[in-house]
TrEMBL record:
Residues in WD repeats: 306-349
Matches recorded under SUPFAM superfamilies: Quinoprotein alcohol dehydrogenase-like, Soluble quinoprotein glucose dehydrogenase, WD40 repeat-like
InterPro entries linked: Quinoprot_gluc/sorb_DH_b-prop (IPR011041), Quinoprotein_ADH-like_sf (IPR011047), WD40/YVTN_repeat-like_dom_sf (IPR015943), WD40_repeat_CS (IPR019775), WD40_repeat_dom_sf (IPR036322), WD40_rpt (IPR001680), WDR55/POC1 (IPR050505)
Annotated segments matching region Disordered: 24-44
Coiled-coil regions listed: none
Name of the protein in question: WD40 repeat protein
Species annotation: Nonomuraea soli
Keywords: Repeat, Signal, WD repeat
Length: 650
């Protein structure tokens, strides 16, 4: 599914065609004549409970699949990007155990290896107890009842039958591994990462066997390694490969070329190869990402295909069910499916998760939330239960904004430019209004304000009609409320102008000079337009700086000392505000540290108190949506395919 860049959910880029001359403060802007408000004093930081991940009953992007058993009955075990491991009956896909936390799962014969970002553990589904714990593995492979686990410095060996560690092998970094038998010797094939060769070791002593060799392209980054007899099978972006391990210097060849539709998952077994493709959107047609699982002989001859997944295949597993050879598959369409390899028929499918690329979130109150996807799907969530409240609503695609007022959800769309009103109780569309919105929507006293087509639009929600439109100055524009009055703040060339949305008049304009140590030519970013305690404020950040500044919208002066987020090192990190909101009189923000395209971590901050809330979450991705209530609920979409909820208290 096509995703909007994360920064587009926080910073609304609107380049207007016309400019408006500077003007004096508008006498009709009541917030400009409000009583002076002292700078908010340092406050005790809010405390956080959570986060709690909402459970949609299924996965958001399946990452791994595996066959297992429970009480002698076959089950499927799957892990998803949302961070849960789930257990399903076969072939009916009924949940048989409560989900575990993790992003990878591998059946070990009696137990299951569950892995997450930092830690892993071996867990027994019969006793519901942890057998042993270990650091998150870099690479694993299972063979003859022995689990080989690489931690980056050595390979440890776990005996799955005795449930004990056998020791370790002097083998360094191993991102991918496969075990087998070559000329009567038990071997372990490892791959350490990009530009590294394959290496063979004796899997009892860890001594090297033979000479290292490369895949045809040393940058191909092999995955899904399997040893079958004297051959090594694996996949890369080029296709499905095979290498004869008996050769003095093996020369891998491509059995099945990718042909422009990259294999995302593969498996190899005696007499069978399987590859799961992901058809690019430009090849799949409008709204289609159907991706087949193709079956091949070990010589590369196409035997047939399995059709049914609506998005890229991410994982495959081979097994038997009632004497029938079957295949498990996981996909980016959020489902796990079971296939009969003889008839090529689908035998069952897990329910799709309710979280699938959520781009926008809004909170009706502390009990109900709404999540929206770019394809137009809306899901109401019961926050107390942590589960979906009813079926999803499906609207038009190109959804780019979301707001909630009472029991009505408002969605903005860009193609065609429209605004839709939804009844959250009846789960139906109420009205469609002209003039879309491509960024955050403001709802205040029955009025709706949004930005689209380089225009600011205002609607009367009660009368369900458009009231007015006007063009802001050229630049980056963000909407906000000052003492309940809607304003538009535009940033261009590090100069800010503030405009009253009701009168369309410019209220102020000022340049924002850099702080000491900041570059004068580095870009500013608008992070928040709203209240800072009792004072209207504009919050800005600057590229290659971790300072967060709170500015007076009339003068541009700092309302309080700039807050500096600690850097992990001396590099030119940027503090990015991925979302802001007002909670119990405090201004809170989701702050991400980013260096070029590298994301270090994301953390809630109490900007009023100048302190972080809770612990930083290590991540490589930005969040995609953020919402708060004044009474302390914070809802975040991401990172990855999950919705997280915090409760903040003074």
């Amino acid at each position: 599914m096509r995703r909007w860049p994360a920064f587009a959910l926080v910073w609304l880029l609107v380049s207007a065609c016309t400019s408006t001359p500077a003007g004096a403060p508008s006498p009709s802007s009541s917030w400009t004549s409000a009583k002076p408000c002292p700078s908010p004093p340092a406050a005790t930081a809010l405390r956080a409970e959570g986060p709690r991940v909402l459970d949609g009953g299924g996965h958001g992007n399946v990452l791994t699949v595996s066959f297992g058993s429970l009480g002698g009955e076959p089950i499927a075990i799957s892990a998803g990007a949302e961070g849960t491991v789930r257990f399903w009956s076969l072939p009916g896909f009924r949940p048989v155990l409560e989900p575990l936390a993790g992003t990878s799962a591998l059946w070990l014969g009696h137990d299951v290896l569950v892995s997450g970002e930092k830690h892993a553990y071996v867990w027994n589904p019969g006793t519901r107890r942890v057998v042993t714990r270990l650091p998150a593995p870099r690479g694993t492979t299972l063979h003859d009842g022995l689990l080989y686990v690489s931690d980056g410095e050595r390979v440890r060996v776990w005996d799955t039958r005795a449930r004990s560690w056998r020791g370790s092998l002097p083998i360094g970094r191993a991102e991918e591994m496969a075990a087998g038998r070559l000329r009567g010797q038990d071997i372990l094939v490892t791959y350490a990462g990009m530009e590294e060769p394959f290496r063979l070791y004796d899997r009892h002593t860890g001594r090297p066997v033979g000479k290292p060799f490369y895949s045809g392209d040393e940058f191909a980054d092999p995955d899904d390694l399997v040893v079958i007899g004297d051959t090594l099978h694996y996949r890369t972006y080029e296709g499905l490969h095979v290498a004869d391990l008996t050769a003095a210097k093996p020369r891998p060849s491509i059995l099945v070329p990718a042909d422009g539709t990259r294999f995302r998952a593969a498996l190899a077994a005696p007499g069978l190869l399987a590859g799961g493709r992901r058809v690019p959107e430009e090849q799949g047609g409008e709204g289609s990402l159907a991706s087949p699982i193709e079956l091949f002989s070990t010589s590369g001859e196409l035997l047939g295909s399995l059709q049914g997944h609506d998005a890229g295949i991410t994982s495959l597993a081979l097994g038997t069910l009632d004497g029938t050879r079957v295949l498990l598959s996981g996909s980016e369409d959020n489902t796990v499916r079971l296939w009969d390899l003889a008839t090529r028929r689908q035998l069952g499918s897990s329910p799709a998760g309710a979280v699938d690329g959520v781009d926008h979130v809004a909170l009706a109150d502390d009990r109900l939330a709404v999540a929206a996807e770019e394809n137009g799907a809306l899901q109401v969530w019961d926050l107390a239960e942590g589960r979906p409240a009813g079926a999803r609503m499906t609207g038009p695609g190109s959804l780019t904004s979301l707001a909630v007022t009472g029991s009505v959800a408002v969605t903005g769309h860009y193609d065609p430019p429209t605004v839709h009103l939804w009844d959250l109780n009846a789960r139906k569309l109420l009205a469609t209004l002209p003039g879309g919105a491509v960024g955050p929507l403001l709802v205040n006293d029955g009025r709706l304000v949004g930005l689209a087509d380089r225009q600011i639009h205002t609607w009367d929600l009660t009368a369900r009609r458009q009231l007015a439109t006007f063009a802001p100055p050229p630049g980056t524009t963000r909407l906000g409320l000052f003492h309940g009055e809607p304003v538009a703040v535009t940033l261009k060339d590090n100069t800010i102008s503030v405009r009253d949305v009701t009168t369309h008049e410019q209220v102020s304009t000022f340049a924002v000079p850099p702080l000491a140590g900041e570059r004068a030519d580095s870009w500013l970013a608008l992070g928040h337009v709203g209240m800072y305690g009792c004072a209207p404020a504009i919050v800005v950040t600057r590229l290659e700086s971790t300072a967060i500044r709170v500015l007076d919208p009339m003068t541009g002066r700092d309302l309080t000392a700039p807050l500096t987020v600690p850097r992990p090192d001396d590099s030119l990190w940027t503090a990015v505000l991925d979302g802001t909101g007002e909670v119990a009189g405090h201004l809170v923000a989701q702050v991400t540290l980013q260096l070029d395209d590298i994301v270090q971590h994301s953390q809630l901050w109490d900007l009023s108190a100048g302190r972080p809330i809770g612990r930083a979450q290590p991540t490589t991705r930005r969040i995609s949506a953020f919402a708060t209530t004044p009474t302390g609920t914070v809802l975040v979409s991401g990172p990855d395919e999950k919705l997280q909820v915090w409760r903040l208290t003074p």
